[in-house]
Design brief:
The structure holds two protein chains of two kinds. Chain A has 13 helices and 15 strands. By secondary structure, chain A is α/β, with parallel strands linked by helices. The model of chain A has no long low-confidence stretch (mean pLDDT 96). In chain B, strands 2-3-1-4-5-6 form a six-stranded mixed sheet. In chain B, strands 7-10 form a two-stranded antiparallel sheet. In chain B, strands 8-9 form a two-stranded antiparallel sheet. In chain B, helix 1 crosses helix 4. The model of chain B has no long low-confidence stretch (mean pLDDT 89). Classes of the chains: A alpha/beta, B alpha/beta.
Chain lengths: 394, 316
């Protein structure tokens, strides 16, 4: 069944279908509609769950951690400054291996104050031990919410997961969404039943003290779990495809990469525009292709190497910047390509920061740049308004 | 370069000892370094501190695995910690103990020097803080540092009366040590690779496990002093029980005939003027020490409103 609705509402319905026991969230734009809709569903009796109103995002995540440790299925959503405020507890959720699912309605970080979309917020939590998957449209966002629980709760990994969807571009966009059949969801996603959970009858401690004799080993186990998540993400995606008839791909999606000379890698909703641009270029006889990078952590090293084995040049679009170096995705792709055969030329582009729109023409510029083999600086800011810049040259 | 490892318990001043040693060596014109390794940060828990003395700038920052000298501030550690691990040939171990070198429980063939630092410290300083005393012993036993530099180092850290008594204690230990005979050891002790891995149990996913409990930590092993209750004066207010950080004081109430007899006996003693009325009226209530867990911190003695608890030196 398909219906038209706002992206945020689609997420609220997907969360309802996943039957969480506890939802704790603090409203922040552009995540607000998601948690408003969920609280409405709970208030109306359509979703049987405890909605915990908290005084901050730090508390929201802390509530999810505590609830998850008791064996509850938990959900939260946030963005930008809210995600930054969660920073320290994100590491606790990951270290305690609690399968919390969180929607990140991607938004820029202050200062300057900006409420619009880019990926700086979740990219800045790259090392927190959470799986991060970026989605292209609202059906994928909704479907991934169900998959996310199955991935996170997989006994082999037990890792929390962020479903990263672009703020406004997806959250506030009305478009047709493939709805989730509750019976199918219930079959696909059984109730959460952890082996270890807090109980007064059998007291346990979560995330206990680990001195230098143990800490490294805990970190290593956690790292291996994130690596193993690559297999689980792909498996769950395939299984979802078999049950629901929609497969959004594994760690990456290759689009017209067969015989492509120039390939652009991007994440999130902008990939749709990129695919259209690739079609235009192909029609004009240019052998362009695209890679939608779905799983940023774990990073799909093997998939990227194999997808880029025969291309001349690869461009990477970063909707973030590690100030003083380059876009995070570029740095990761470059290190992935180190010591591979036929390493392609790599072009790093920064665009779409703080809600700056990326039309097809911007992608055409990037492909032009790659085709002309222009040497570029570490990260080329595309569509930079140089006429308004003021800074001291040193 | 000479390397010194100090084994002690939290609160005994092991870290301060290492720091004072480094400062003293610096006063002697050497390069030096001192740093701690804390386990659980808790009074009485085993602590290791390290010091390096050298004629050149010290770049090495690892812990010390093959010490030239080991200082053991508390002889009860010898059964719990491998204090001589990696000790170099000709290395010296200085142990705070009133026993002879042969009797502290270290292998024959190790050059062990014992000194009753607790006795000296109690005698001169009035408290069982043995670090400065042991530094005097170190200067005497090893000759690595002049006693004058040790004195300067102590006085710089603790000016005034406290520094002076600590200096006196150090000097006394220095004199006792210089007259001690040396017993050379021939081979180095087996070292431990990195930190000591005591457990090889599998670690749980998510660091989820049984909650910790002080029940399994026998803090009674850490005790130098124990509290003695004067039950003839005690009004049974319970302040000692409430203030004990290790719940090592238990209240027990006699019942039936036992209670009647205790009260009767107390009444007679009270009439004879031997015990206080408040104590006599509650003679059936007892406060008892749990020696497994009392670490001798003395908080109960400090809190007792009638000064009815005295800290006594434990015979070990």
């Amino acid at each position: 069944m398909i219906d038209i609705m706002e992206g945020s509402h689609a997420i609220a319905l997907a969360v309802k279908a996943a039957r969480p026991n506890v939802v704790a969230a603090y409203p922040i734009t552009p995540q607000t509609h998601i948690v408003e809709d969920i609280s409405q569903l709970i208030a109306d009796g359509d979703l049987e769950a405890e909605y915990v109103k908290v005084e901050s995002e730090h508390s929201a995540m802390s509530v999810c951690i505590g609830a998850s440790a008791t064996g509850a299925r938990t959900y939260t959503a946030t963005t930008s400054q809210g995600l930054a405020l969660m920073h320290e507890v994100l590491f606790n959720a990951a270290g305690m291996r609690l399968p919390i699912v969180m929607t990140v309605a991607n938004r820029a970080l202050s200062a300057p104050l900006n409420i619009w979309n880019d990926h700086q917020d979740s990219i800045s939590e790259r090392d927190s031990g959470w799986i991060q998957i970026y989605v292209e449209d609202n059906t994928e966002a909704s479907d991934l919410t169900i998959q996310a629980y199955k991935i996170a709760e997989d006994r082999r990994i037990q890792v929390p997961i962020m479903v990263c969807m672009d703020g406004y571009t997806l959250t506030h966009t009305y478009e047709p969404v493939e709805l989730l059949d509750q019976d199918l969801v219930d079959d696909f996603l059984p109730p959460y039943a952890p082996t270890d959970y807090l109980s007064v009858d059998d007291p346990k401690t979560f995330g206990m003290f680990a001195d230098p004799n143990y800490y490294t080993e805990f970190r290593y186990q956690n790292h291996r779990a994130l690596e193993a998540a690559k297999t689980v993400i792909a498996e769950v995606s395939r299984e979802f495809g078999e049950v629901f008839g929609r497969d959004h791909g594994g760690l990456i999606e290759e689009y017209r990469c067969d015989g492509a000379e120039y390939v652009l890698i991007a994440m999130g909703s902008v990939v749709g525009t990129l695919k259209d641009t690739v079609d235009d270029l192909r029609e004009a006889g240019i052998r362009a292709g695209a890679i939608k990078l779905r799983s940023y952590r774990p990073f799909p090293v093997e998939d990227i190497r194999s997808a880029l084995a025969d291309v001349q040049a690869v461009g990477i679009l970063d909707k973030n910047i590690s100030l003083g170096y380059e876009g995070a995705l570029s740095a990761d792709v470059k290190s992935t390509l180190y010591r591979t055969n036929n390493t392609p030329e790599v072009f790093s582009f920064v665009a779409g920061l703080g809600g700056r729109d990326i039309p097809k023409g911007t992608f055409v510029k990037m492909f032009d740049w790659m085709r002309e083999d222009k040497k570029i600086s570490t990260s080329e800011f595309i569509d930079l308004r140089t006429e308004i810049l003021e800074f001291q040259e040193v | 370069m000479k390397e010194v490892r100090i084994h002690g318990r939290g609160g005994q001043g092991s870290v301060t000892a290492a720091e004072l040693l480094a400062v003293a060596a610096f006063e002697d014109g050497k390069f030096s370094q001192a740093f701690p390794f804390f386990g659980v940060e808790r009074r009485g828990a085993p602590v290791t501190a390290f010091a390096r003395l050298s004629d050149k700038k010290i770049r090495l920052r690892s812990q010390i695995y093959e010490p030239d000298y080991v200082i053991v501030q508390d002889a009860t550690l010898i059964s719990a910690v491998d204090v001589t691990a990696g000790l170099k040939p000709d290395g010296i171990v200085i142990v705070n103990s009133e026993k002879s070198a042969e009797d502290v429980g270290l292998d024959a063939g190790i050059d062990v020097r014992t000194i009753d630092a607790t006795g000296i410290a109690l005698d001169i300083i009035g408290r069982p803080i043995v670090n400065t005393t042991l530094l005097g012993a170190f200067a005497g036993a090893t000759g690595e540092i002049g006693i004058d530099s040790i004195k300067q180092s102590i006085l710089a850290r603790f000016p005034g009366k406290i520094g002076e008594v600590n200096v006196q204690a150090a000097e006394k230990a220095y004199k006792l040590m210089t007259s001690a005979k040396r017993k050379p050891s021939k081979k180095s002790r087996p070292r431990k690779n990195g930190t000591a891995y005591e457990s090889h149990e599998k670690i749980p996913i998510g660091a989820i496990g049984k909650p910790g409990t002080s029940e399994v930590t026998r803090t009674g092993d850490w005790r130098v002093f124990y509290p003695e209750f004067d039950m003839d004066q005690c009004s049974r207010c319970g302040k000692c029980l409430e203030s004990c950080p290790d719940a090592a004081i238990h209240k027990r109430e006699l019942t039936g005939r036992e209670a009647t007899e205790a009260l009767k006996r107390a009444e007679e003693l009270e009439k004879a003027g031997k015990i206080k009325k408040a104590a006599a009226k509650k003679a059936h209530i007892l406060y008892e020490l749990d020696p497994m867990y009392c670490k001798g911190c003395g908080i109960c003695a400090n809190e007792c409103p009638i000064q009815g608890i005295k800290m006594k030196l434990e015979e070990k």
